[in-house]
Amino acid sequence: MMMSFRSRILRLIGRSALPQPCEEARAHSSDYIDGELDATLETRIRTHLSDCHLCEAFFRTLRETINALRGMPTQTAPAGFADRVRENIRG
Q: What is the rounded distance in angstroms from the CA atom of residue 21 to the CA atom of residue 91?
């Protein structure tokens, strides 16, 4: 998704295009979904999600994506793959 011109400018000057409660909720989205937040922050985010349809949709989509990825079969890398990656990183 392309970032709007306004969003790019706000990001460059250190401001977000989202209101602070949305920024906070999204910054902690993974920990919230995993149930790893303290009760105060979890309650604040849950309350925000009940009032903010955009963040609720963001969290729903993130949950669906995580669940889809968890449902995918795991695969084993071919022999020597990790060594080749390390070698390419070293240059």
A: 44
d(C-alpha 16, C-alpha 23), whole Å? 8
3-state helix/strand/coil string of 30-91: HHHHCCCCCHHHHHHHHHHHHHCHHHHHHHHHHHHHHHHHHCCCCCCCCCCHHHHHHHHHHC
Residue-wise pLDDT for 28-65, tens only, equals 999 999 999 999 999 999 999 999 999 999 999 999 99
Instruction: Note the pTM of the prediction, 2 decimals.
Output: 0.64
Using a 10 angstrom Cβ sphere, with 0-12 exposed, 13-18 middle and 19 or more buried, the burial of residue 29 is middle
CA distance 77 to 10: 41
Q: Which residues contact 54 (CB under 8 A, 6 or more apart)?
A: 22
